[in-house]
Write a structure and sequence with these properties.
The protein has 741 residues and is an all-alpha fold. It contains 23 helices and no strands. The longest helix is centred in the N-terminal third of the chain and has 35 residues. It is a multi-pass membrane protein. It is found in: Cell membrane.
């Protein structure tokens, strides 16, 4: 089979209706939504890149006044926020949206409408973030927004509020899209495709979805508390009023370090697809690559405080997190040997995609080695808050994530468009980026060792600093030029690029078994999978992998989509409530002045309403049994009783709130009141959301539109309702009965 087919494909000429703007805005096709994610991320890449160039021109010369100190702070705040939340995560979700269903032989994602909603949260969050500039100035507390700089006493501008609400929008959309990918991989694989046979990009996207589901709620909880501080006068993160700025750092980095792996794991998957194809060999050590990625997911939640060694956590905490940081380097670093062994002895073709994959290996190793250095606490103390940290971070995210995305772009562009990208322009882009990245960030490694602090808008004319900053700025210009080359390459290739054919690379996975670009339904017939390289098996039946290498058979069982999504959502919400309860325990461990749980709460009365809420779980269970038995009248009665019991609980909570407010106990009185109203308030909102859902189900049942064949939907609602009850048992035990205080 030739490497590149030259014949036109049947889908080159799309119908005019398919190309209308309205069809794109209203689409629920996973491929179009994936393209929308990628295009939106590209737009914000231009914005974030411009912000980076402005900062580099300011730092070109010592004591420069190209930017004011305030505007420089706004630029580095929005550059970091943009690149992480509006570029890195969306572009990876875009590729996952487009290719995960194709690679597992599915028609679409599990929940197409949820997929569309998840995407539209992205531009909404971006608009909120950048609308802040129209209020007089942009956010300026850093992309990490450390307290107390982000609290009202130190930051009165409403731009900070836009930053918080924008990130909350992006967080909700990210969790929703991750639940969709998670359920799609578990529930919609083609016949024969066991989890041990999925392509590694699918597996890495699956791992990314787990990380996002469990990490983003930590940020959402911290943002909600910060917003309550700013809007309602609480003091979670104000040390002057008893709050803790350190608690913000803990909550942020509980999200922040898994976020690094959210950004790098899909790139691992991209490289794991590109290198075998252009080495003409199967991936070496598939099982190890997959299992080590799962180990990374587990370990990533136990290393967050290595970002906080300079805080003074104590020797015990420093040792624990230093060991964790060293351990997580092992499953991350050993993959380099898997990819290298895959190339060893292979028939390597240095296409642009392969060049970026090889550069990924080299640059990511540099970033990884400088990261391991930070696991040594004394070295971290010396280099923290210097440009060495900036250099390390960018070697990981540019040398890792960005180079992985570039490799994937050249690899999958023919499948997405039916056209080939220009290889000559691709190599120009490659060398501009390789030189530019190393010029910029290797210089910053040296600047960090020489003592130049980060987050400063200017610097003294110290020996060697100006020369290295000039080199760094020239490197940034080279990367910008490389990006323009890529955009020109995409534009010209879409208009007049060489036709690609269905499988121009002779690749192995299922997306190459359909036309380029794929039809709306993806496949005319869902293929059956017998190995990890199904297209190789189709093209080379005499040398099929399933004949020479046995992989675990597919049981054929697939979990229910509705119930699986409910459990994924519950896992996410559990993390959210866990952090709220941690804040309650931290701030109420010792009795303080003012209202406390002992002198303000009526345990007996709330206990009675608690019985009502717990009883609603029992009545819901009876409703499930009645629906399964086809007893519609009994089903409606039990469901009505469930709603009534839940409503009684909410009425009791409202009664309690009115009594507290009449006693002048408001959320801004002290930290007990702040944590009490926050924990119980968010729980109450979840109960109300559950009551609304139950009411919709009851209304459908009254119209005979909710029959026994929809038991799975009711089961998913039940998972949520029982979760709300379990959370309240924990809240009641801690807040009202005083456990852990």
């Amino acid at each position: 089979m030739p490497l590149v087919k030259t014949e036109e494909t049947a889908t080159d000429e799309a119908t005019p209706a398919y190309e209308t703007l309205l069809s794109w805005v209203s689409t629920v096709d996973h491929k179009r939504i994936g393209i929308l994610y990628i295009c939106t991320a590209t737009f914000f890449l231009a914005v974030g890149g411009l912000e980076a160039l402005l900062m580099r021109f300011q730092l070109l010369l010592p004591r420069n006044d190209f930017l004011s100190p305030d505007f420089f702070n706004q630029m580095f705040t929005m550059h970091g926020t943009t690149m992480v939340f509006l570029v890195g995560m969306p572009v990876l979700v875009g590729f996952a949206n487009y290719f995960v269903p194709l690679m597992i032989g599915a028609r679409d994602v599990a929940f197409p409408r949820l997929n569309a909603m998840s995407y539209w949260m992205l531009p909404m969050g971006g608009i909120l973030l950048y609308f802040s500039f129209f209020t007089g100035k942009g956010p300026d507390a850093g992309w990490f927004s450390y307290a107390p700089l982000s609290t009202k006493p130190y930051n009165l501008m409403v731009a900070q509020d836009y930053w918080i609400t924008g990130l909350l929008c992006l967080g909700v959309g990210s969790v929703a899209s991750s639940i969709n990918i998670f359920v799609t991989v578990l529930s919609m694989r083609a016949p024969g495709m066991s989890l041990q046979r999925v392509p590694l990009f699918v597996w890495m996207s699956f791992m990314m979805s787990i990380l996002t589901i469990l990490a983003l709620p930590a940020l959402n909880a911290a943002l909600a508390m910060l917003l309550i501080d700013r809007w309602l006068g609480a003091a979670f993160f104000e040390p002057a009023r008893g709050g803790s700025a350190i608690l913000w750092q803990h909550f942020f980095w509980v999200f922040g370090h898994p976020e690094v792996y959210i950004l790098i794991l899909p790139a691992f998957g991209m490289i794991s697809e590109v290198i075998p194809v252009f080495s003409r060999k199967p991936i070496y050590g598939y099982t190890f690559v997959a299992v080590s990625s799962a180990v990374i997911v587990l370990l990533s939640y136990g290393v967050w405080a290595h970002h906080m060694f300079a805080v003074g956590l104590g020797m015990g905490a420093d040792i624990f997190f230093a060991v964790g940081s060293l351990l997580i380097a092992l499953p991350t670093g050993v993959k380099i040997f898997n990819w290298t062994a895959t190339m060893w002895g292979g028939s390597i073709r240095l296409t642009t995609a392969m060049l970026f994959a090889v550069a990924f290996l080299l640059e990511f190793v540099i970033g990884g080695l400088s990261g391991v250095m930070f696991a040594a606490v004394p070295i971290d103390w010396q280099l923290t808050d210097s440009y060495f940290v900036v250099a390390h971070f960018h070697y990981v995210l540019i040398g890792g994530t960005v180079f992985g995305v570039f490799a994937a772009t050249f690899y999958w562009f023919p499948k997405m468009t039916g056209r080939m990208l220009n290889e000559t322009l691709g190599k120009w882009q490659f060398w501009l980026w390789v030189w530019g990245m190393n010029a910029t960030f290797m210089s910053q490694h040296l600047l960090g060792v020489m003592g130049m602090p980060r987050r400063v808008y200017t610097y003294a004319d110290n020996p060697g600093w100006m020369l290295l900053n000039v080199i760094a700025t020239l490197g940034a210009i080279a990367m910008a030029a490389g990006t323009l080359v890529l955009l020109w390459n995409v534009w010209t290739s879409l208009r007049s690029g060489e036709p690609a054919g269905d499988n121009p690379w002779n690749a192995y996975t299922l997306e190459w078994a359909t036309s380029s670009p794929p039809p709306v339904e993806n496949f005319e017939k869902i293929p059956e999978v017998k190995s990890r390289r199904p297209v190789w098996d189709m093209d080379q039946p005499d040398l099929a992998d399933w004949k020479v290498e046995k992989t675990p058979q597919d049981s054929g069982r697939r979990p229910d989509k509705m119930t699986t999504s409910a459990w994924a959502f519950i896992a996410s919400e559990a993390v959210f409530f866990l952090l709220l309860l941690v804040s309650y325990v931290v701030f109420n461990a010792r009795a303080g002045e003012g209202p406390t749980s002992e002198n303000s709460l009526d345990v007996t009365r709330t206990g009675a309403f608690t019985v009502c809420l717990l009883a609603s779980s029992i009545t819901f269970w009876f409703a499930e049994l009645a629906l399964a038995a086809g007893k519609q009248i009994h089903f409606r009665r039990w469901l009505t009783l469930t709603i009534l019991l839940g409503s009684v609980f909410i009425a009791g909570q409202v009664w309690e709130y009115i009594g507290l407010l009449q006693s002048d106990i408001t959320i801004d009185v002290n930290l007990f009141a702040a944590t009490f109203f926050t924990v119980t308030g968010f729980h109450g909102m979840h109960v109300i959301a559950g009551l609304i859902t139950l009411s919709i189900v009851l209304a459908l049942a009254m119209k005979n539109a909710f029959s026994r064949d929809r038991t799975n939907v009711l089961r998913a609602v039940g998972v949520y309702w029982h979760f709300v009850d379990v959370v309240w048992i924990i809240v009641f035990s801690i807040v009202y009965l005083g456990y852990l205080q």
